[in-house]
């Protein structure tokens, strides 16, 4: 039984009627006028910048409060069996994915360096390459992979929004942050176990959230297997690059 | 050479032409002709409207405040004792000239040292308002009335140099990463507040986040000169807390109260990561 998806404009990125959400009592409507960054405040009727470059186009994706974000993070950790998608159906946010990803870049590179320091403190130097690898890997994983998945799902006629996929993948990475703390302990077996556990949790989160929307065609099985493989290889890359 | 033919030129070049004309006029007519450039009617259009910071009109007295406009900027030659305050529309056209308002000075004909000194004084003033513990610390909404980007630029470059100096290998890569993180981080943090529905001015926020790096600069300098890890760690922690303390009121005042943590957390993340670079590299 497929959950009815609201073909909301928020699912298309960028939304075509962003202003309809901003009209009404939305506080950011005033915020748009005070932005000095875009030279559009000279004349309202002109509209200086194209729509996709304005801040106001993307504000609907950041319409979350602190407790919304923490609730979504808890969903990703506790695997509430698909509730995540219903929660974010009407209000997928991009704040969570972006900042979880950025935090993870810092945490992984910092603690990865710290763990190599703990392994051999005599001849150690800070490896700045870890930061570059972290940035490349995490941003590509969080933002490119859902894009490809979105196109593939469109091909097999599954109605899932792009922003919702971004939201899902972004929050699924959260579990790697506490795991990085634990993986500092310089015991090799513990590192493997802990990273494998994180991979398992994030994979389960993604699969259970997607499963009820995929239907039961043969393609859905392929998609699930493919996603499991991708997530597992991500966890493997995480372990090897940062906590070797 | 009349000023009434308003050929629509670029703002700065029209004002340059005005200034050169006035200098020629003054030279021709000699000292008897009291023709101050300040009394020329503004044939040139006023500078493009930027988001103006509430500037009180008392600041329109000329030599009071510095303005580090680019070297082609012109304005009335500051003669405070002899000249009456500028005519109202001239002053109104001058006030929102970005870089925190205030009349722009004639940087073409004054000594270079004077220009630099003015900028340094402005940086010092802004530092005092933003960073230092000050019982008369201004309301965060008015924090950097006179914002500029020279201070942040200098602090970011110094921080990159200090961190990459003490790196044992890959110095240029370290500098690149630190510079990119700081510069992109300031922009992204400002965008973050804007996207969450906050009310800030883009360049003012960039400027403020740059000034709040000053304590981390001090920490980086100390860590560069000293190599004892525990002392370094304590210094980094103290300067990190100081930077966060300086930046917090501004950012938290800009968003609504139920999103405060969402806006403040990335600032904290940026300063912690820079502190970690200072300590570990």
UniProtKB/TrEMBL annotation, chain A:
Annotated localization: Golgi apparatus membrane; Membrane
GO molecular function: small GTPase binding
GO BP of this protein: vesicle-mediated transport
Biased composition (Polar residues): 34-44
Source species, domain of life: Eukaryota
Keywords recorded for this protein, A-Z: Membrane, Transmembrane, Transmembrane helix
Spans through the membrane: 94-111, 131-153, 165-183, 189-207, 219-242
Region entry Disordered, spans: 24-48
GO cellular component, one term: Golgi membrane
Main location: Golgi
Species in which this protein is naturally found: Ceratopteris richardii
Protein name, as recorded: Protein YIP
Membrane topology qualifier: Multi-pass membrane protein
Pfam family name, one: Yip1
InterPro entries: Yip1_dom (IPR006977), Yip5/YIPF1/YIPF2 (IPR039765)
Similarity annotation: Belongs to the YIP1 family.
Residue stretches making up the Yip1 domain: 84-237
TrEMBL record, chain B:
Bias (Polar residues) ranges: 1-15
Composition skew (Low complexity), residue ranges: 39-64
Main location: Golgi
GO BP annotations, alphabetical order: endoplasmic reticulum to Golgi vesicle-mediated transport
Coiled-coil regions listed in the entry: none
Any one of the GO CC terms: Golgi membrane
Domain of life: Eukaryota
Subcellular location: Golgi apparatus membrane; Membrane
Record-linked Pfam families: Yip1
Comp. bias regions, Pro residues: 77-88
UniProt keyword annotations, A-Z: Membrane, Transmembrane, Transmembrane helix
InterPro entries listed in its UniProt record: Yip1/4-like, Yip1_dom
Membrane topology category: Multi-pass membrane protein
Family the UniProt entry places it in: Belongs to the YIP1 family.
Protein name, per record: Protein YIP
Species assigned in the record: Ceratopteris richardii
